Amino acid sequence: MIADYRNKKVLIMGLGLQGGGASSAVFFARLGAKVLVTDLKKEADLKPSINKLNKFRNLTFVLGRHCKSDFKRADVIIRNPAVPNDSKFLTIARQHNIPVHTDISWFLSQLPITNYQLPIIIGITGTKGKSTTAALLQYVLTKCNKKSILAGNIKKSPLDFIKIKNTRYLIPNTQYLILELSSWHLESLAEHKLSPHIALITNIMPDHLNRYKNFADYKRAKTFIFKHQTANDVLFLNKHDSVSRQIGQRKNIKSKILWYVEKEVKDLKFAGDFKSCHPDNLQGVLAISQYLSLNKKTVQQAIKTFPGLEGRLEFVDIIDGVKYYNDTCATQPEATIYAIRKLKTQSSKLKANVNIILIAGGEDKNLNYDKLARAIAENVKTLILFKGSASDKIVKALKQFNNGTIEQLNNIYSMQEAVNIAQGEAKPNDIVLLSPAAASFGLFKHEFDRGKQFKICVKKIKNRTTQTIN
Asked: What is the model's pTM?
């Protein structure tokens, strides 16, 4: 049982649509705080999140703008990770000695003053694969009868797990707290000198360069995961990742470095017809499991039955012999390259000729698309691109590789249009793959909305096909 927040002024900066802002607002409102939610988006754009908060009389909104005065008189500010840490409004708050947190940094800052036995905190970051690695690790722990919480960038706030009683809160008694940490979360952890006991970096590749000055700045943010670790902590690094190998050579890392490499992975099979988890992610989970002395047979059995995550090379359906895959979480080129090559390798085992129809594109994050263009030229039959700045860069990059064999359809404005075109292009044994390699904003609310629309459109095809048969 810890601090009393009744009548404290708590400002939530960035409500958003993926749950984190709403979870923070609900949590502090239930504690009796005077909660102010402020977001640059207007009410109509935030309706799903606002609907979760309307019942609280101690909660108010400032939407469509931020007011400087609000950032001068709060007791604490919880910023949505999507809010830039160097926002001028947060600078004002810090000038007035107001603590600025994300929900995760605030949560971790409270743990040392609880009466419970503290959980082992496992932080997982990386450019790609962190969601799957974190979810798989919790799945393994659960199968090994270990109590754990999974939260963070995986659309779940740790505040959702806190029990509130008489306007006081209780941190639940659990053995492991697994946190999927974006670079934006890590900025806040570094600000408050926090690091997990166990840290794992899946890989570091160019991403979010529309927000960071350059790749070096982005890499620096990722290294915050171990910045405040001690000699009693451990850092797992991927030996297959070139940036991680560079990190491992540093002399100023206080924690113990453990490398994870390929072993005990080849014979493991996932549920369904496609093993969507990257081998490196499996290796990371196996390495942590061994470090925690989990039962080896139980761990392997758990991995075999893990169903995977939505939006990560997710098999959606097979219709008239055509397979549809939702890889909407591939928001940068290397992720889409992996998806294309993985599906092509999978398909090469079949005797029939298999073509890939790729739905991609969107808004650019200041990334390079040359390697993706080569992968498309070598493996894709038809390329369907949403309208956007990333799509323009893909088209330009393809000119140096395309010999005229790839059909390109550009400036697509809706998912329905894209899927209809893909259906028309596909023949039995072909694959329709949504793997954008770009940000979703503009045409979609967020990447999960993009994936959801894809699955809805595929379902419509299925329904039409069924009606025709009947």
From this structure: 0.90
